[in-house]
Design goal:
The chain is an all-alpha fold and 85 residues long. 79% of the residues lie in helices and 0% in strands.
């Protein structure tokens, strides 16, 4: 009984609510005022260049670390061979 009353009350609220207005562009709409323009282009270019440079630096550092570990393993193997031999 109470559930039916709540359901009918919810329907009444939904039906009584005003419909959402449809947005329309204003009379002074101009594509040049809503585009990022030169400033946006330069900003995105700087961000892209920074990302590429950071990626290249990361690759260089990972390669250096890997190479250093390989050299250390070789030196340790040679040292172990000398002490055994």
């Amino acid at each position: 009984m109470i559930a039916a009353l709540l359901e009918s009350a919810q329907r009444a609220v939904v039906l009584a609510a005003p419909s959402s207005p449809v947005p329309t562009p204003g009379p002074d709409f101009n594509e040049d005022t809503v585009t990022p323009g030169l400033f946006g282009f330069v900003t995105m270019l700087v961000i892209a260049l920074a990302a590429v440079l950071l990626a290249l630096d990361m690759v260089r550092r990972v390669r250096r670390t890997t190479y250093t570990a390989q050299v250390k393993e070789r030196l340790d193997a040679e040292e172990a061979e000398r002490s055994d031999g």
